[in-house]
Amino acid sequence: MSGEVDALRARLETGELADLSDPARILEAETVFSGHVWGVKRERFAFGGGELVREFVAHTGAVAVLALDDDDRVLLINQYRHPIREREWELPAGLLDIEGEEPQAAAARELAEEVDLAADVWEPLAQFHTTPGGSDELLRIYRATGLTQLDAFDRGEEEAQIVRRWVALDEVVAAVLDGRLRNSILQIAVLTAHARRG
After folding, report:
1. Could you please report the per-residue DSSP string of 149-187?
2. Is the entire prediction scored with pTM above 0.85?
3. Which domains does the chain possess?
4. Catalytic machinery residues
């Protein structure tokens, strides 16, 4: 086992800078909580010559949309988020909770459902694991342009109070760097878009 660990360490220290798939052998798995949106799993797995047990949020995955208009403005939404007790500025986003739905199709659905827009051009912008120590969620962000207005969608629950606001990309970047916008998805999206624009 030591030889395998040493080879892996050498590959990580000297190889291409990239995350590395390394699925552990699962010895036992159970769902310890099933919630309205996601659940919690407990897994016992082989690791480093021994065994470990970890609990984590089993997540469907999600998508978000950085919608940009012809004036380089970003469409932000303000929405109540109960776990943090704040009305947070965010991007239109949602879960991959329809079986078999492709992520880009889910992003288009969320753009329509949350802000009544469609886009002609879709580009992958970023993807990341939101909390890799406690959740298996993978979030994909798309850049959407060529926007057109749709009929108003009937929204309920927290989404019924969504506030929309178009803001210049540079202004959003400044607010992120100033610490006034703390949503990680929004931060990653606008900083990535800003870096790629330059």
Report:
1. E-PPP---GGGGG-EEEEEEHHHHHHHHHTTS---HHHH
2. yes
3. 2-58 (no CATH), 62-197 (3.90.79.10)
4. 159
